[in-house]
Here is the input.
Amino acid sequence: VTVSDLTERELIKRIAERLQPPPGWLTVGIGDDAAVVEPERNRLEVLSVDAIVEGIHFDRRFTPPGAIGHRALAVNLSDLAAMGAAPRLALLSFVLPPALLLDDFDALVSGLAALALRHKLHVVGGNLTRSPGPLMIDVTVVGTAKRRQVLTRAGARPGDAIYVTGSIGGAAAGLEMLRHTASAASEAKHPPGTDLRAQGLERCAIRYLYPEPRVRMGLALGRNRVASACMDLSDGLADGVRQIAEASGVGIIVDAAAIPVDQEARAWFDAQGGDALTSAMTGGDDYELVFTSPPRGNGRLRAASRGIDVAVTRIGICTKAHDLILRRAGEGPPTDEAIPSGYTHFR
Amino acid sequence: VTVSDLTERELIKRIAERLQPPPGWLTVGIGDDAAVVEPERNRLEVLSVDAIVEGIHFDRRFTPPGAIGHRALAVNLSDLAAMGAAPRLALLSFVLPPALLLDDFDALVSGLAALALRHKLHVVGGNLTRSPGPLMIDVTVVGTAKRRQVLTRAGARPGDAIYVTGSIGGAAAGLEMLRHTASAASEAKHPPGTDLRAQGLERCAIRYLYPEPRVRMGLALGRNRVASACMDLSDGLADGVRQIAEASGVGIIVDAAAIPVDQEARAWFDAQGGDALTSAMTGGDDYELVFTSPPRGNGRLRAASRGIDVAVTRIGICTKAHDLILRRAGEGPPTDEAIPSGYTHFR
Here is the structure.
């Protein structure tokens, strides 16, 4: 059974069945021309949209439908986290190949719904349409934040320290592992996944497949007003550092030794014969937060991140000079090099 | 020059240059992780999303880029109109084939921006990503309405009259004309458009290419509280009548002779040997409004539509029995038939 065996309305019903009951502030929900919601009092609204596209952002050979649904929402929640906003609602726009199996459609919706539930986000509406080829999911999210708690990219000042949450490189390594395994499996004609587990490489693959947006950390950074600038690492740490520096009008010196490269990822990149640090810094999909904090804000930062199970690592400092420097300390004097250039979508 | 010759940021800059200056209520605009807006006081928010996809919703052989941009926003404005909401803001999600000409990209954005300007809607953010094939544009709109002015599909009562704005069938006929001309042109190797004008068929084609969302009329119907139910005709009048009847729990009798079929469209459908009324009722893309109004609300309806240059035609009545009937009056007694079934996306 494929999605083309059902009507649009039947598919919408299957989505609604997988969602939480509608909240009181939703005046008109799924099924009318538009959703109607009551705004939250004394809050600003934070809006973001992000599409994931088959063949560009995911490969259906090794990305299970549940992971596609998860990712479509996670990338948007990560944008809200980067602004210090609390998730509130989402609109889903699905562009579906008619041959998509109904089981896969259901699993995709369930993956998205499970993440929504964990972050108390309500799906209030959306749209379904046919695709002439690739599967695409476009999600719009709306969150809320108090005026003084909004985090932008533009507030870093010279002397601020720069931090990153969690570890980096894991998702990029996981994607490479999945690609290798999928190629090997298609040659050996046995299903992907088996090999991966045998190699003990499951953790990085899961990091790639199920990115965990740092919503609680973003909220805490906004509430405690401990971050002067913040963004999420959808396109890698090198890109994140560059964006904050440009938006804030500062330079940044990153201490290479301090960068929390995922240990398994480092081993993987080393084994591939590349430079693990560069691969980790330019690899995307980590969805960690990078943020800056004024000097002597260490106590407030510790207080903000208390009870949140995510590491926070200081990786460098903002400077008056506008250079972006990666500083490697060795046995001799430290050597400076330019921060590798980030990922650009269209060039 | 194609979009792939530019970076994502350069493309975003080209979009921003074509937009109105940002309004005061936009706290954080294009360029950060998300947009931040101040909500409007004492208003509900009305949210909708709609994607248009190359090969499904438009054919680039005969749809100029400006018309693609226009349509992407128009279909969403039409949803706001159907809810009685005033347009406020939009987020744009573009999925672009790398080979898209930069001139076409600019024209597409300009087509969208021109319609946004006319409806005082601000583009506050969005996302750009590559497509592995088709061009897709997904637009999210947010409008506002006072609580008691929101129009849903569910408020029609037995005895209410049912109305439609403007005329129907023009867009469906226009699409057929454009298809015929494009096929003829590709055989004769001369550019489309020429033939169309020679045949005097330009008006229907323009109706298809540049649908005019009935925003002012929707607002007036909501403000005057003259409509008990309302929706827009994205999928045709037959579908609209059916949806209002189902959501409201009523039946509807439509007077076939009263239906305002576009005159040129009727001539076209007749010439093609089909049933013009059925073609007009099941054809999509008209983006007119269909609405119901309580009996003896005629004076208020006239007052509401004063100064709005769109015809409003009474086409039938809501009934207690749940049947959907198309009544044809002739020389003998009237004959009743079932309303043709509407367009369904996935079956």
